[in-house]
Design goal:
Chain B: InterPro entries: ABC_BtuC-like (IPR037294), ABC_TroCD (IPR001626). The complex is a heterodimer of chains A (291) and B (290). Chain A is of the alpha/beta class and 291 residues long. Chain A is 25% helix and 21% strand. In chain A, the strands form two sheets. Chain A has a six-stranded mixed sheet with strand order 6-7-8-3-9-10, sandwiched between helices. A four-stranded antiparallel sheet of chain A has the order 2-1-4-5, with helices on one face. In chain A, a hairpin with a 2-residue loop joins strand 1 and strand 2 (54-64). Chain B is built from twelve helices and no strands. Chain B starts with 7 loop residues before the first helix and ends in an 11-residue tail after the last helix. The chains are: A alpha/beta (291), B mainly alpha (290).
């Protein structure tokens, strides 16, 4: 069954034109899926989920292969956030199967391999926290208990530098702009030195300067071999990085292949041009909507 | 001034006051961070039933209060998980049930009376027995161990629960542990501050400290400092003026809050102004699609 899966994904790879040629993949080589180094970081098959009695995912397949950068696109309410939140275990699946690095989700314990960047909420926490304190929380994925060691502090510092926030490390997060806050959340995920980054709308409400820094950070991570799954409202400055786009509509996959060019998500059917998450200045002006 | 240390009961009361001053803000900071500032109040109400149970059974009310309030705190935490729609009503039932149960049970017991209850509701400096001091010290040690020892883990859980779950932290266990620790803190504090005002000491020093601090660790340190200062000075004041210590401690804490707010507000304003001035610049965004 595993070999079957591997063959299947090998076939789809052709059309997806991914960067990785799949030389590490040898179908059926490892007996234990958990031991298989070539196991796909994310494999979602026939996933269904309901929220408040309403079906949000209606049987989606989503595979993210090692080293790939996959964008999950779709209009508001298409189920893209739910898909990502079900992958990290925050929304229960009512059907289908999910494996992470070849291990069924229920048995998966190796959370240090995953760096999660949740959708940024504007609600500030009650108690002040510095940028460094928030980023350090991400290191708990590597060392859950016990005092932080030198390597932990170094990883936090490195993550801060990667997103260009090292000079703000002692500032309270409440004093940051939306874009800076987003950079902090990404640094928090990077502090755990993950193999797979999962990001939910990392560009929503982010100013252009921060968008470019984030794109640069992501480019470095991808160059080092990090696998990325990100929910996007539009491709924007990340477009050159993206290997494959999966488009959701009403809880179903309607496209799985090369990213839609230039016009991005705005050209897709069902796009309703409602941007509740984005600050007005974060939305590029588009005059070619009708073309 | 130092003659008050000649009285053994005052030595015990002051020791208990210091322990309350440390433990209440140390737990309170996590509750405030999670926007559950009122939780201590709820546990205080439930603990009353525990105290009354102690009178009824002849056991030390501190230990029965620990047991009952810990159960109540766990129930509140479970309601937070599962009770999505009418969680507020369920919590209200728990609060009022705890209060009513306490009054009912204490009047049923042969030794208890409403006068006894008053010392638990508003605190008392003369009633901290040597046996209470031992219990309070042990419980306070537990609270300090959890709140300071698991500071990074509890911070992560209270700051962003969803993210904490994805790091693989045992979030449910940590939440339950925090609930039980809050319950233990309530019983540590009830002899000095009283059950009705214990929540104030969990919340007010934290609220005061965060007016002047920029980070979590600093807020925690300052809140504990404020906590110890107000519990000690409030207890001394109560000795001289013969008022319940809970009342003087909480009034002092609110005074400190007002003072820090008055001093810190202009500072914060200036800092915010500086940040805004440094960042508000126009950028030409050449990404118009034609």
């Amino acid at each position: 069954m595993e070999a079957e899966e591997a063959r299947e994904s090998g076939e789809t790879r052709e059309s997806g034109e991914t960067r990785e040629s799949g030389e590490t993949r040898e179908p059926g080589v490892a007996a234990d899926p958990a031991e298989n180094p070539a196991a796909d970081p994310i494999s979602l098959r026939g996933a269904t989920a309901t929220l408040g009695g309403r079906p949000v995912l209606r049987g989606i397949d989503l595979t993210v292969r090692r080293g790939e950068v996959v964008a999950l696109l779709g209009a508001n309410g298409s189920g893209k956030s739910t898909a990502v939140r079900s992958i990290v275990g925050q929304v229960p699946l009512s059907g289908g199967e999910l494996t992470l690095f070849g291990t069924p989700r229920r048995r998966f314990r190796d959370w240090a391999r995953i760096g999660y960047v949740p959708q940024r909420t504007t609600a500030a926490s009650g108690v002040p926290a510095t940028v460094r304190e928030v980023v350090s929380a991400g290191r708990l994925a590597r060392r859950r208990f016990g005092p932080p060691r030198k390597a932990d502090r170094a990883a936090v510092q490195r993550a801060l530098e990667l997103v260009g926030m090292a000079d703000r490390a002692r500032d309270p997060v409440s004093a940051l702009s939306g874009g800076q806050h987003q950079r902090v959340l990404i640094a928090r995920a990077l502090a755990g030195e993950p193999e797979l980054l999962i990001m939910d709308e990392p560009m929503a409400g982010v100013d252009l300067a921060s968008q470019e820094i984030l794109a640069g950070t992501l480019r470095e991570q991808v160059a080092e071999g990090t696998t990325v799954l990100l929910v996007l409202h539009e491709l924007g400055p990340l477009e050159p990085l993206i290997d494959r786009a999966v488009v959701l509509r009403d809880g179903c996959v309607v496209h799985d292949g090369p990213p839609p060019k230039a016009v991005g998500q705005h050209a897709l059917p069902g796009h309703d041009h409602v941007h509740p998450h984005a600050a007005p200045d974060a939305e590029p002006i588009r005059t070619g909507l009708l073309t | 001034m130092l003659e008050i240390l000649d009285y053994a009961f005052m030595q015990r009361a002051l020791l208990a006051a210091v322990l309350v001053g440390i433990t209440a803000p140390a737990v309170g900071i996590y509750l405030v961070q999670r926007r559950q500032a009122i939780m201590g109040d709820g546990i205080g109400h439930v603990a009353l039933t525990g105290v009354a149970l102690g009178f009824l059974t002849g056991a030390n009310p501190v230990w029965t209060a620990v047991a009952v309030s810990a159960l109540g705190a766990i129930a509140m935490e479970l309601i937070r998980w599962y009770g999505k729609t009418r969680g507020d009503l369920a919590l209200a039932m728990l609060f009022y049930g705890g209060m009513a149960g306490g009054v009912l049970l204490i009047n049923l017991s042969p030794t208890g009376s409403n006068a006894n209850l008053t010392t638990y509701l508003f605190g008392s400096i003369t009633t901290v027995s040597p046996e209470d001091v031992v219990a309070i010290s042990l419980l306070a040690a537990f609270v300090v161990l959890i709140t300071l020892g698991l500071r990074r883990q509890l911070f992560a859980v209270c700051q962003d629960e969803e993210f904490a779950r994805v790091t693989g932290l045992p979030v449910r266990t940590l939440n339950l542990l925090l609930a039980v620790t809050a319950a233990v803190t309530v019983t540590v504090a009830m002899r000095v501050v009283g059950l009705l005002l214990v929540s104030a000491l969990m919340v007010v020093p934290v609220a005061a400290a965060q007016q002047a601090t920029r980070g979590f660790a600093m807020t925690l340190a300052l809140a504990i400092t404020i906590g110890v200062v107000v519990t000690l000075s409030g207890t001394v004041f109560s000795f001289y003026k013969n008022v319940p210590p809970g009342a003087s401690i909480v009034v002092l804490a609110i005074g400190v809050f007002a003072l820090i707010t008055a001093l810190a507000a202009p500072l914060a304003k200036r800092r915010a102004g500086r940040v805004a001035a440094a960042e508000e610049r126009c950028t030409l965004r050449d990404d118009v699609l034609v």
